[in-house]
Specification:
The chain is an alpha/beta fold. The chain has two domains: 215 residues, P-loop containing nucleotide triphosphate hydrolases (Rossmann fold), CATH 3.40.50.300; 80 residues, 2-Layer Sandwich (Alpha-Beta Plaits), CATH 3.30.70. The protein has a six-stranded mixed beta sheet with strand order 6-7-8-3-9-10, with helices on both faces. The protein has a four-stranded antiparallel beta sheet with strand order 2-1-4-5. Strands 12-13-11-14 form a four-stranded antiparallel beta sheet. The longest helix has 16 residues. It is elongated, with a radius of gyration of 24 Å. The two termini are 29 Å apart.
């Protein structure tokens, strides 16, 4: 595995004693889109801020492209682009100037052609001379991404990049993210829109209480932990589930008009055939049935609710 980011036993304890991160270990593969998911206060932003040099770790180590973030900070930071949650503060600057200035901060020589390419890819070219204070919230979010890309980073952090952005702009941003990955940029994103992670990510990490509780390929995760449900639309509403069906742990929904059976996709036998036979014996008739698969959001909610 070719890792662009290697994190070993990283911990952060603040002055008041709060442990934001607890011995985090994580390997990010070069060229992947990695989604870091977790509830508010789980440690996502703290982890990003440590890798980007904004916050100091209490202990542990992180290497970016082989460069230690503590002892070789400059080389490590040159590789990183960061799109923070906060909107930009240089409100009187033009879009062009703020992106050009951001490139210069990393010691890169001026490259107007690159800045133009970035702004066009984010549909900001017609706003290049506009002051940031004149832009909408969604446009300001695009400027953050343009600034992060101004110095050709190999590793891009997107910390809730589409928060407060309309659907059309969100979809445009993810097209850009896909193009970045295709060009070789590694992308690490945090998002509250778990459907986006389900659509975009190659791998998923889940953090809760400052600890990484799971890292897995998205498709493998959904296959292993995802469950299917069989929903039966009943011919007549039930007041309660017949006792002879108790072994199937059925659930009544929609005021007794729906009967839901949850089964594990990993089992060789789903139990559906036996259930249908038992329903017939219990004289429970249905008009229609359909199956549904757990989403990544269902899996995420289930994991963070489990005792640590």
């Amino acid at each position: 595995m070719d890792s662009i980011l290697s994190i070993s036993n990283l911990s952060k304890t603040y002055a008041g004693g709060f442990e934001a991160l607890k011995n985090v270990n994580l390997e990010i593969e070069r060229g992947e889109i990695f989604a870091l998911l977790g509830p508010n206060g789980a440690g996502k932003t703290t982890l990003i801020n440590i890798v980007c040099g904004i916050v100091s770790a209490s202990s542990g180590k992180a290497l970016v492209n082989g460069h230690d973030i503590s002892t070789d900070f400059r080389k490590a930071r040159e590789v990183i682009g960061l799109v923070p949650q906060e909107l930009p503060v240089e409100t009187f600057e033009s879009v062009w100037n703020t992106c050009t200035f951001s490139r210069g901060l990393f010691g890169r020589s001026p490259n107007p052609a690159h800045i133009e390419k970035v702004l066009k890819s984010l549909s900001l070219w017609d706003k290049k001379d506009s002051r940031i204070m004149e832009l909408s919230g969604g446009m300001k979010r695009r400027v953050l991404i343009a600034k992060a890309l101004s110095h050709d980073p190999e590793l891009l952090f997107l910390d809730e990049p589409t928060a407060g952005v309309d659907v059309e702009l969100r979809q445009a941003m993810w097209r850009v993210v896909n193009e970045l990955r295709d060009s070789g940029v590694t992308v690490i994103l945090t998002t509250h829109y778990i459907a986006e992670a389900e659509q975009m990510a190659d791998r998923v990490g889940i953090i809760n209480g400052g600890e990484i509780i799971l890292v897995q390929e998205k498709d493998s995760l959904m296959q292993e932990l995802g469950k299917k449900q069989l929903t039966l639309n009943l011919h007549e509403a039930l007041q309660e589930i017949p006792s002879q069906l108790s072994a199937y742990k059925l659930v009544l929904n929609d005021e007794g008009r729906e009967l839901v059976y949850t089964y594990d996709t990993k089992d060789e036998r789903t139990g559906i055939t036996a259930l249908l036979g038992e329903l017939q014996a219990a004289d429970v008739r249905f008009n229609d049935l359909h199956t549904s698969q757990s989403s990544l959001e269902d899996i995420f909610v289930d994991l963070v609710k489990r005792p640590q």
